[in-house]
Design a protein that fits this description.
This protein is about 35% helix and about 20% strand. It is an alpha/beta fold and about 475 residues long.
Length: about 475
Amino acid sequence: MSSTASPARNPGFAADDAKAIPLHVIEADALESWLGAQPEALRGWVRAAGFKASLGASLLVPGEGGRIDMALAGYGDAAARARGRFHLAAVAAVLPEGSYRLTGLPPARAEEEALGWLLASYAFDRYQDQKGATARLVAPGAVDAARLEAIAAAEMLTRDLINTPANDMGPDTLEAATADLADAFGATLEVTRGDDLIAANFPLIHAVGRASDRAPRLLDMRWGDAGPQLTLVGKGVCFDTGGLNLKPGSSMGLMKKDMGGAATVLGLARMIMALGLPLRLRVLIPAVENAVSANAMRPGDILTARNGKTIEINNTDAEGRLLLADALSLGAEEAPDLMISMATLTGAARVAVGPDLAPYYADDARLVSAIEAGAARVADPVWRMPFHAPYEAMIEPGIADLDNAPSGGFAGSITAALFLRRFAGGTRYAHFDIYGWNPSAAPARPKGGVGMGARALLEALPEALGL
């Protein structure tokens, strides 16, 4: 990334050598059996320490000269593990610096736990010195180490982008981060800025961003020259005041994360390019600041989108769907094999599923099957929401083709998704209404910006696109 943003992070596994400390992963009901095969001194040490192999517990076992001879990691039971993910990341966070080699971990859990260990090393340290886990893991033999390292690096890019405050992450900085990513992987980037958006027929992007002194822009990145075409569209509102429908202070505090959709599609794009997936990738990011000024769009205005549909603006704080409408219209003009939008779009989605699930909308059975299976395999939980056709009338105000903020307060995430589908042009399409923020620390996921749904999509793409 550029000097105006956080440096690129390259998490990696430790070298496999004789100095790596054995880390025994022990389920609670297997502890006594494991102890029975150990020397009496070790059994005494474990029992004296009160180690019960509960989930996330750890114990260092000293050897000669005070060195660490081995470490134990509690793995609890199936019921405890079902209530979370990345359990060994909690152990990584408390182990002293060094290299560790896992023993006893079920192979089926190796990929999830190895990735969690990599992610545990993340800390957002741009403004204050701090560290994530310093214990490094020797990659378990059952995993593709290079793949996991690429995924972790992409997730850390997403986190850095979201965590950076708006004074250091405006539309120009988001453009710079996208340009750096394009340069790193041989992609091309075309940018349309300011009043050029009008001439290029992106009226909604211009209308949302024109009130800011940081010019709105559309970022259009392309990579790959063969295979099916995948178009990713990410909402890039670098700060959202709500516009003339000004947000209260309590709702504005986290609005640096309103570019979480853009940050997440850039993370997914980095995974795709780093892993060399055989497809043609296009990334569209409308990058703006929704500000307040004399030339801001007004409630009651009627705007015309790129595809010719008219939209009544009944709330200037429902701006994300306007940006995405122009970008989706552009994407649909090429009829890609799959188009996906990701956005921190509605509070209604969070009320419905909370901050840990990524709700998504899709009607294509093959795509849904691929997403559901992929999410389960890589511990990236999603929840399918309905494109409920009877609610279409709720987004039709009568005075224009569409209403950007239907009154009544019902089904806010669904009506937003239905609105967006009007601009997908019949393309095979999925929409993710993500939160992009972890409100409290969890293993491998510190409080702050977080990617949602990207790993599930990466896992789904081979089946969804026939790669």
